Amino acid sequence: MNGTASLVAVALLTLAGCATPPPAEDRFLPDKTTAQSAAEVEANTGVRLPAGSLLLSAARTSLSGGLESRTVAQVRMPAAVLDRFLADSGLGTPKPGERTVTDQDFPGSDTWHPDRATTVTGTGDARRRVMIATTSPDVTVYLVATQS
To answer: What global pTM score does this model have?
Structure first.
């Protein structure tokens, strides 16, 4: 191969390499999503749902080829049991106006709409986040937990 042909070959290989899409930056690419029962939500998130709770929606998504998973749940419960639920679950004290959960935590869901809540409180840590939409006499709790 002469010098010009070598330069052309190197240029083509370089361009071909540039055309290859980079690996995904988001480590939370969903692999598989399955519906969850109240018992599965409790087991996967470490919370205890109080009596009188109504599980509105819940799912567990396998992420990054099964290396991690995320459980999301939407629960309606009487406002009177909220403080006990937070304490028993070790979720901490929520801060008024704190939006710790968004629609993007469960994209494509027909029932998951925390962004529509107008009055919220929220708290969370590296593994679990909770946002409470305060209504009367019930509250809607949005919970997101990541397991590795």
So the answer is: 0.76
